[in-house]
Every structure is written in C-alpha cells, then in structure tokens.
Amino acid sequence: MKRKVLVIEDNEQNLYLMTYLLTKHEFDVAAARDGREGIKVALSYNPDIILLDIQLPGMSGHAVAREMRRNERLASVPIVAVTSYAMPGDREEVLAAGCSGYMEKPIHPETFVEQLEVYLAQSEEDRRSARGNPKGDRNESSGR
Predict the structure, then answer these.
(1) What is the CATH number of the domain that holds 28?
(2) Claim: this prediction has a pTM higher than 0.85
(3) What is the mean pLDDT of each successive set of 10 residues along the chain, which is 144 residues long?
(4) Which of 1, 15, 33, 76 has the smallest set of CB atoms within 10 Å of its CB?
(5) Count of alpha carbons within 13 angstroms of residue 138, beta-carbon side
C-alpha cells in the first residue's frame, strides 16, 4: 500500500515540485493550500506524514502544528516543517510548535525523498517502541 503524504503549501511551484517528486517515488499525495484546509484534509485523509510550510496565509504553520498536536487523531502523525526560515532559532521554534523535523527551502530534488524517508522510518520505529516492540519484529498485524 502506498504511503500517504499531506503537503500543506501555498506556493504553487513548491507544491508542484514536492508532489511531482513524491508521486514519482510512489507516494499517495494530498495537498492543501492553507492551514485550516490542511487540518481538515489531515483529518479525512489520515496521512502517514505531513509536510508543512510555515508561512501560510491566514494561519501560520506554527499554529497549524500546535492545533494538530492537540487533536487525538493527528497527535502522533509526523509533521515536517518545510520552510525558508533558516535563521538561528527558527528550527527550535518549529520543533517547539510540535513539528517532528525541519527541512529547508529550497528543497533539493536529489535528496528530498531520502530526507522524508528518514522521518517516516523514525516514526515507524517510534510506533513499534510504543507498542512494546522495540526491535521492530513484524509478528504483529500492523498492516504495513
């Protein structure tokens, strides 16, 4: 089964590039162009990971991440900030808002999917550990 990625991004070129790279690597991709839409799509789409722009119209990515972390259904979904914010303290700010990781824009097409895979692998390991299965034994019926 394809892994599901939600991209919350208001810039059409960035959204196109991320969607292209992800679908080329056989991910199922949904998109939202602002924070409120992103939260709504996340609740119905049940993504495996969320890529979140921080500079969004109407509702900042920080606010989106905080709201998602308060929602029981989204609290454990990895959220990776994909942002041009690269000043000292910006990374810490997105992590404090509830993001699981941070990727700088402009993204690098050669390494973008690899970076995403690292966050997905970490998320899977965290889920196994939470189920009391730290070695990743696949005896459980996790559906993956």
Answers:
(1) 3.40.50.2300
(2) yes
(3) 96 98 98 98 98 96 98 96 87 95 95 96 84 54 37
(4) 1
(5) 3
